[in-house]
Amino acid sequence: MSDTPVLVVDLDGTLIHTDTLVENFWAALATSPSILVTAASALFSGPAALKAALADASALDVAVLPYNAAVLEFVTAWRAAGGRTALVTAADRRIAEAVARHVGLFDEVHGSDGEHNLKGEAKAAFLTGRFGLRGFDYIGDAAADLPVWRQARRVIVVAPSERLAARLDAGGQDVVTLANPRPGWADMLRMLRVYQWLKNLLIFVPLIAAHEGRVESWLVAGLGFLAFSFAASSAYILNDLLDLTADRHHPRKKQRPVAAGRIGPLQASLMVPVLLVLGVLVAILTGKLEFIGIVALYYALTMGYSLVLKRRLIVDICALAGLYTLRVLAGGAVTGIHLSEWLLAFSMFIFLSLAAMKRQAELVATADRGQSEAKGRAYQVGDLPIVATISVAAGYMAVLVLALYINSPEVQQLYRAPAVLWACCPILLYWVSRMAMITHRGKMQDDPLLFVLRDRVGLLCIAGVLLVALLGSVF
After folding, report:
1. C-beta separation of 24 from 42 below 8 A
2. Do domains 6-178 and 184-339 have the same CATH topology?
3. 141: confidence class by pLDDT, cuts 50, 70, 90
4. What Rg, from alpha-carbon coordinates, does the chain have?
5. Each residue of 178-222: pLDDT tens digit?
6. Three-state secondary structure along 164-197?
7. Looking at the domain covering 184-339, what would its CATH class be?
């Protein structure tokens, strides 16, 4: 097969289901927000300089990048038949070389070098000069590859759009198409983490606690729920982008659409501001400035958590508890319901318990994998007893606050039979203790609050508390 042209393979969107430039940006930002200044300065010197600056500031773990199995199989078969291969990409050359070393399938590697951006016409000229006109077959994926394909002997394209496929067909060349599943609605919904919107039901807690029955209050709370949900999805995607490498090392999180490469990081990046703007617009519709401020504070705290706080010992648990509590505060702000000190105190302790359970679950999983430290966190497996203690202690403190609340004057105004509420205490003590045991045994695979909403026993506990509250109100 010595007379066969060289097989030239592109990297971004072709050999891998992602874009290394965008990934490098988010990886660098996760390490140091000052990269924004560095990137802006480098951009004035051109795309190649930007790629070099971002490559300097971050180090992609090429071993966990989402590789395209169809392309790997094609290249492997080509080499098995005796053909030569080359990885030629507009990505920074150091990244291309690291990928080539990892896959072990390329005879030579070329990429952008900080001065020359090896893309489009520049790549076409480089390949023609090195291999000659029609001296290579080329695997690419985008319209930017059209100048290269015009110089190639054969066009090999990865999952082209209808528009790109039509342009390639019009070129009159031999076209080979390699499969690459496109994201569906299930991937989009999973990226938005719509199931996490269940947390935003906390916005309705002040209405329930205040026995609010007016329809208009529930409707405006519904708008608040939507505003928080859009803002939360924006924050979740932002966190996914900042945590790509850590997620790919996690047994479950590596299946998230962006980490797995089913949705590109550029698409995900564009969704961040779109969802945030939607959240702000819905918040404005409520007409409550205090609520708009809480949504802004929630997003700012979420960004702080994603960029810095999640890597700070104990601070991360307090931040998570604060994000839960902000939802309750938002419910009071959007409906105009005054939140009692009792509700705020109960929320503070119960959410601190849930946040500690979340970290405890991650540490238990880390220990099960035989690792000593949680990747991307400030905890070690040896911290498990302390984190577990925080979880149980905070949960029991929440029950104590409830017990003290039952004897307060506020209860006398809201409930006809306050003594009935004492039945809530053993239910909650059982629930906190059971959750602690489930987490300790490594069965807590989700966010604890979401686990409760999916757990039959947890739902029975919630129903029991609501039933007791109803009985205390009626009798």
Report:
1. no
2. no
3. very high
4. 27
5. 876 666 788 888 999 988 898 899 999 999 888 888 999 999 999
6. HHHHHHHCCCCEEEECCCCCCHHHHHHHHCHHHH
7. mainly alpha
Q: What are the tens digits of pLDDT across the range 84-114?
A: 999 999 999 999 999 999 999 999 999 999 8
| Predicted model pTM | 0.84
> Does residue 5 contact residue 136 with C-beta atoms inside 8 Å?
yes
Cα separation of 217 and 333, whole Å? 11
Could you tell me which of 468, 348, 327 has the C-alpha nearest to residue 411? Answer: 468
Does CATH place domain 6-178 in 3.40.50.1000?
yes
Task: Tell me how many degrees the CA angle 58-55-148 measures, rounded to the nearest 5.
Answer: 140
Cβ(256)–Cβ(247) below 8 Å: yes
The domain segmentation of the chain, as residue ranges, is: 6-178, 184-339, 340-475
DSSP line for 103-167:
H---SEEEEE-SS----THHHHHHHHHHH-TT-EEEEE-SGGGHHHHHHSSEEEEES--HHHHHH
Distance (Å, whole) CA 225 – CA 238: 20
What is the mean predicted confidence (pLDDT) over 69-90?
95
At 1, the pLDDT band (50, 70, 90 cuts) reads very low
- What is the tens place of the pLDDT at every residue in 445-457? 767 877 887 889 9
Is the pLDDT reported for residue 2 higher than 60? no
Give the position of tokens 């390949």: 127
| Higher per-residue confidence, 377 vs 429 | 429
Q: Give me the long-range contacts of 448-453 (CB less than 8 A, separation at least 24).
A: 448/354, 448/357, 448/358, 448/361, 449/198, 449/199, 449/324, 449/354, 450/195, 450/196, 450/198, 450/199, 453/198
> How many Å separate Cα 240 from the centre of its chain?
2
- Going from the C-alpha of 25 to that of each of 215, 242, 269, the distances in angstroms are 47, 9, 11
What's the token pair of residue 387? Answer: 């984190």
